[in-house]
């Protein structure tokens, strides 16, 4: 039987011990409202690393206070935040997992109530601690407050914020960074013609709409150096007429490749309300399309919850790694379970638990 899920993968100077990775998943668990990780984050991420994941990607982390989806999000705009990530990253390393972090700007979907712990949803009003959101254009996401269009000077500030967060990520010990350009957040808003009607060099053609993302990729590379992999998460389609298509995404991925991106994390949707054909592995064909069209490695995500399903995705050349989200929340030992299912002998079961495997 093949064991592709357990084949190591090397990207630049980093070798992942396997190809079962944890995608970024917001926890809305910051306790002090200043973007600093809490004990929850240590235990949550630590458990999945201990459970055999090849990589753990820390949730969407705001590059500025305004970049957060909610006031309970993590941030990486200060040295205090950076220092608080160090023990988390160190623990992931003791468990043999590569540590990644998703750097994010929520754009017009920022300043909302957190997903749980409140009776409210939608935009958090400014007089309750919310803030004015920003976007490529003053076009609101359905049901959320209207954003303000960014000026060109402010766009340069966004690039600088991603750059400093990337520097802090490396200083904290992260092995790689992922730039969040999916799910209707700021960089996806620039990419999609449905949310970007700018007439300057950041709007209009696909190339112009991709400019901000490419600028951020270049700035990130300057900070992280040549040995550190840089991933980009894209929504490969807006799932609606007039929106981004897989073909557009293949073009963008080609430019990202030229700019030194190492892997595309292929998701979809989130920029506008759309009918998404959700079902087991519903996005793996998009990962396959981006992989084939751009020649870049991809990670597939979306209702991948069974070891054999993951093995099949790799065996059929759709992706180079799988990202297991909600199933990893249900079972933080998913990778260990997958090794059992595939009858693969791994040497990274926690020694503390050796009696369970006798
Ligand atoms: C998510 N997802 C997500 N995506 C992202 O790019 N950044 C994020 O911070 C989050 N946050 C988040 C929180 C929670 C609780 C969930 C369940 C999901 C999306 C996630 O990374 C993944 O793409 C989807 O969950 C689909 O994969 P699964 O869960 O079907 O394996």
Write the SSE topology:
Elements: E1 9-11, E2 14-16, E3 20-22, H1 39-50, E4 55-62, E5 74-75, H2 79-94, E6 98-104, E7 134-135, E8 148-149, H3 152-171, E9 176-181, H4 186-191, H5 206-209, H6 211-224, E10 230-235, H7 246-258, E11 263-267, H8 284-294, E12 298-301, H9 307-315, E13 321-323, H10 326-330, H11 334-341
Parallel strand pairs: 3-4, 3-13, 4-5, 4-6, 6-9, 7-8, 9-10, 10-11, 11-12, 12-13
Antiparallel strand pairs: 1-2
Structural class: alpha/beta
Order of helices and strands: EEEHEEHEEEHEHHHEHEHEHEHH
Write down the oligomeric state: single chain
Small molecules in complex: ligand FNR
What helical percentage do the residues reach? 25-40%
Can you tell me the CATH architecture?
Alpha-Beta Barrel
* Average pLDDT number: 97
Major beta-sheet overview: 8 strands, parallel, barrel
Can you say what the CATH homologous superfamily is? Aldolase class I
Question: How many β-strands, per DSSP?
Answer: 13
- Examine the coordinates and then state which fold CATH places here, giving the name of the CATH topology: TIM Barrel
């Amino acid at each position: 039987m093949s064991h592709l899920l357990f084949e190591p993968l090397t990207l630049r100077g980093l070798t992942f011990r396997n190809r079962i990775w944890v995608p970024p998943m917001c926890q809305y668990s910051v306790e002090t409202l200043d973007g600093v990780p809490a004990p929850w984050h240590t235990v949550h991420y630590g458990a999945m690393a201990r459970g055999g994941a090849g990589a753990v990607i820390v949730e969407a982390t705001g590059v500025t206070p305004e970049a957060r989806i909610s006031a309970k999000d993590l941030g990486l705009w200060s040295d205090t935040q950076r220092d608080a990530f160090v023990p988390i990253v160190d623990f992931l390393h003791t468990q043999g997992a590569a540590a990644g972090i998703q750097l994010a700007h929520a754009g017009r979907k920022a300043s909302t109530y957190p997903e749980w712990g409140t009776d409210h949803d939608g935009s958090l009003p400014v007089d309750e601690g919310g803030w004015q959101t920003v976007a490529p254009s003053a076009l609101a996401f359905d049901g959320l407050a209207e954003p303000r269009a960014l000026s060109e000077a402010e766009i340069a500030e966004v690039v600088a914020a991603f750059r400093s967060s990337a520097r802090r990520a490396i200083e904290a010990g992260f092995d790689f960074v992922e730039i969040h350009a999916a799910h209707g957040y700021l960089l996806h808003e620039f990419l999609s013609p449905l949310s970007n009607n700018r007439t300057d060099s950041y709007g209009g053609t696909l190339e112009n709409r991709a400019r901000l993302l490419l600028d951020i990729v270049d700035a990130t590379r300057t900070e992280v150096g040549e040995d550190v992999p840089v991933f980009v998460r894209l929504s490969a389609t807006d799932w609606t007429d007039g929106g981004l298509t897989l073909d557009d995404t293949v073009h963008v991925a080609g430019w990202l490749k030229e700019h030194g991106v190492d892997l595309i994390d292929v998701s979809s949707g989130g920029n506008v309300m759309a009918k998404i054909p959700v079902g087991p592995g519903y996005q793996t064909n998009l990962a396959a399309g981006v992989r084939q069209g751009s020649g870049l490695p991809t990670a597939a995500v979306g209702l991948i919850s069974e070891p054999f399903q993951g093995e099949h995705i790799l065996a059929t050349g759709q992706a180079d790694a799988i990202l297991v989200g909600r199933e990893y929340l249900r079972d933080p030992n998913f990778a260990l379970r997958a090794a059992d299912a595939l009858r693969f002998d791994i040497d990274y079961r926690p020694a503390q638990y050796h009696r369970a495997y006798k």
